[in-house]
Amino acid sequence: MNILLVVGLTCLLVLILFLVRELTDILAWGPLDFGFVWLMVLSTSIVYELITRKHKNKTYRLALAVALGTGFIMIWTNLAVGLIGSEDEPVNMIYLVLLAGGLIGALLVRLKARGLTITMGIMALGQVLITLIALLAGWQHLPSSSVSDILKVNGFFFLLWQTKMYLFDPSCAFSLSDLY
Known about the structure:
Elements: H1 3-23, H2 31-52, H3 58-80, H4 93-108, H5 113-136, H6 147-168
């Protein structure tokens, strides 16, 4: 797939979303919302396209797609409704720190599968650390938040990070039981 095709498909997606907004009451988006979704989808797609040009291994490509998709979902959900409390809660910035750490880790290991395995493992542990921080800090008492919500959302992302770790190198996957 080339970059022009990625740009075209991204524009088509945003056009479809615009038509959905015009024909239904499902989306209450303004111009900035459409611009932001276009930028997020476009940048994620271009990063995937540029990295996979060098890597023909299908498992690597799948792992990278899941990694980028997880980051996309984490940002999207955080901005839309918030992962802890509402989208307006400053505590949600902690997830951007996790993603920034993952990006730095990926660049430091030069996107090599073995290094990405370690990076994904660190991100999975970071997700556990966020869960502990959230519960110890009492963030479950924020409006629209609960212990169950925090455990579910962070458990979901933990499993996604661990899945990518396994895809990059199956021999390195670990479980929570390895932590004690």
